Amino acid sequence: MRKFIFYSASVLLSFSSIAQQKSWMLFPFQKADSANPCLVPSKATFADPIRKTNVAWEEKDVFNPAAVVRNGKVYLLYRAQDKIGKPAGTSRIGLAYSTDGLHFTTMKNPVLYPGNDQYKKYEWEGGCEDPRIVEDDKGTYYMTYTAYDGTTARLFIATSTDLIHWKKHGSVFGKADSKYINYWSKSGSIICTRKGEKMVATKIHGKYWMYWGESNIYMATSDNLIDWTPIPETDPSKKQFDSLRNYEAFKILFSPRKKKFDSELVEPGPPAMITKDGILFIYNSKNSPDYGDKTLRDGEYAAGQILSDKNDPTKVIDRADQNFFHPDKPYEITGQVNNVCFLEGLVFFKGKWFLYYGTADSKIAVAVKK
C-alpha cells in the first residue's frame, strides 16, 4: 500500500523535503496557490505562415516555460499547443511578462514557431518545444529548444537581443558531426552564474558547458554558445550504447536509479547554476511503475537536485536521494499527461527565487523561495 494514501499530498511533500534537505540545495519552494496556475490556454490567434490561415496557437495547452528577468520584469518563454497538428497539436513558443513574478500578460503572437525556412523539415508539424534560456555578458539571449517533426526530437538553438525577434541556428550539434542531426536529442541546460537578476552563461576552463539528454544526462561544450560538441566516453569499461535514443557512447553525468523517484528517466530542468558549493543542477524525472519509488504514483514526474564540481562539470559531488518537488495540486495531477510537475524556469527577482513549471502538460505554475 502506497504511503500517499495515508497522508495528504501536501503533507507528504513537506515530509519528504525535510527528510532529504542538504545544505547546498536551493530549498524550500512554496507553491503560489493564490496565483496558480499563473498561465492558462487562450483563444488568441495568429497568421500561421505554413497553414496560411489564422490558428488558435495556444488553445489546447501551455506548459514547460523558460524564464528570464529583463528591465524589471519576469518574462516567460513557454510551449503552447494548438488543436490542429498531429499527433497532439503543433507546438510554438509564446512570450508572457509580469511585474510581480506571479501574474502574467501574454503576447498575442508566438515568438518562435515553424515557418517556411530551412528548418521546416525538422520542426513541422510537431513544432518548437520546451525552451530553456540564458544570456551572455553582452545581453544576447540563447534559447535551447526541441525541434520535433513528429518522429524525432532534435536539440536546436536560437538567439535574440529583445526576446521577441529570434534567429534560428538549427541543431546545436550540427557542426560537430553531420550524423548528430538525426540523433534523438533534447533539453539543453547551459551552465550559468547568477549576476544580480541575470543568469549569465559562464565558461569553465575556457569552454561553455551544457547538460542535456532525457534517458541519461549527457554533456557538451562550446566556444560560442551556438555550436556544441557532445563529450564522448573514452573509458571502455564505462561505454554505454543508449538503445532507447540510439546514442553512441557519450559520457554520462548521471542516470536513473531503481527504487527512487528518478527511476525511469532523468531530464534537465532550468539552466544549471554555479554556486559557492559547486554546480547546482535541478532536474526532472519520471517514476517507473515497475521498479520505482512506491510512495509516488506510477509514471509521476518529480524534480530532484544534484551538485557537480564547478572545476570539473563531469564530476558529481552529491545527489539528493528524494525529490524536492512533485505533483500535489489538482491542475498538476490531471491534464494532458497526468501527475506532472516539469521544471524549466528559474529566476532571482526582487530578492526572491521564482521557479516556473509545467503542470500535467496543460498549464503553468510558479513556486517561490524567499
Description:
This protein is mainly β and 370 residues long. The chain has a single domain (3-369), classed as 5 Propeller (Tachylectin-2, Chain A), CATH 2.115.10.20. Helices cover 5% and strands 40% of the residues. It contains 3 helices and 26 strands. The chain has helices at 9-20, 120-123, 330-333; strands at residues 30-31, 46-48, 53-55, 61-70, 73-81, 91-98, 105-106, 127-135, 141-148, 153-160, 167-171, 189-190, 192-195, 198-201, 208-212, 217-222, 228-230, 252-254, 265-268, 273-274, 279-286, 301-309, 312-319, 341-349, 352-359, 363-369. Strands 13, 14, 19, 20, 21, 22 and 23 form a 7-stranded mixed sheet that branches. Strand 22 and strand 23 (312-319) form a beta hairpin. The two termini are 36 Å apart. The model is unreliable at 1-19 (pLDDT under 50).
Taking all Cα atoms into account, the compactness measure Rg is 19 Å
**Number of β-strand runs:** 26
Structural class by secondary-structure content: mainly beta
Assign the CATH architecture.
Answer: 5 Propeller
Order of helices and strands: HEEEEEEEHEEEEEEEEEEEEEEEEHEEE
Produce a short descriptive summary.
The protein has 370 residues and is mainly β.
Short key terms for the protein model shown above:
about 375 residues; globular; five-stranded antiparallel sheet; mainly beta; Tachylectin-2, Chain A; seven-stranded mixed sheet; about 40% strand; disordered N terminus
